[in-house]
Write a structure and sequence with these properties.
The structure is a single chain. By secondary structure, the protein is mainly alpha-helical. The chain has a domain at 62-201: Tetracycline Repressor, domain 2. Helix content is 70%, strand content 0%. It has helices at 9-36, 39-46, 50-53, 60-84, 89-102, 108-116, 131-150, 159-179, 183-201. It is elongated, with a radius of gyration of 20 Å.
Length: 210
């Protein structure tokens, strides 16, 4: 049998095409908004027919939700990769807090979508359209807190409640910075808030760079 069409290569080709579709859709939804974006816009940007999109999504709403989900997943993975490169648990917390907050600065399309659809940010599980992704983000916080406690670097605490608290603070400042357009002011407040948090949870005084 021709190896070009082996079973191992086909899933990779489909996944690559799916990612291309989500990227094109992200650009279109960011530029035109959900209401004005059409399936034809996305298909045309890829040189596809509208019908071919239905091999990947059931319609425009499904395309939108999967596109946003993919972008949020990339955001979470970028933070997780950066955190994994650091050994010191206090630095892990700082990297997580800083990168997760600054990520949207360099990702304009996702930022534009979040500004148009702030409901993407939700702290209520029943209303959270992207619960699994946000749950994964909170698990990263739990893991860091758990490591810090085990190493004696963080004070003992209820890790689940603490993770929810920190995630709530993070979401509040994301909205202030990007949705409410409070920019530099919100960024400075968030930075000070994270210093206060670290001073509170660390068993020894953390050192901060200006």
């Amino acid at each position: 049998m021709n190896q070009l069409f082996s079973s191992s290569s086909l899933p990779m080709d489909r996944n690559q095409r799916r990612d291309e579709i989500f990227h094109a859709a992200l650009v279109a939804f960011a530029r035109f908004g959900y209401q004005k974006t059409t399936m034809e816009d996305v298909a045309g940007a890829l040189g596809m027919t509208k019908g071919n999109l239905y091999f990947y999504v059931s319609g425009k709403r499904d395309l939108y939700e999967k596109t946003v989900s993919s972008a949020l997943q990339q955001w979470r993975e970028a933070v997780a990769i950066a955190v994994a490169r650091v050994d010191d648990v206090v630095e892990k917390f700082s990297v997580m807090a800083r990168l997760s907050f600054d990520y949207l600065v360099d990702h304009e399309d996702l930022r534009a979508i979040l500004i148009r659809d702030p409901g993407i940010f939700s702290l209520t599980p029943r209303e959270d359209r992207f619960y699994e992704i946000n749950a994964g983000a909170m698990q990263l916080i739990r893991n860091i807190l758990g490591q810090g406690i085990a190493e004696g670097r963080f004070h003992p605490m209820d890790v689940d409640h603490a993770a929810e608290l920190f995630f709530s603070i993070y979401i509040m400042f994301l909205i202030k910075r990007y949705v409410k357009s409070e920019g530099v002011s919100a960024a400075r407040m968030y930075g000070e808030a994270m210093k206060i948090v670290l001073r509170g949870i660390c068993t020894t005084q953390p050192q901060f760079t200006t």
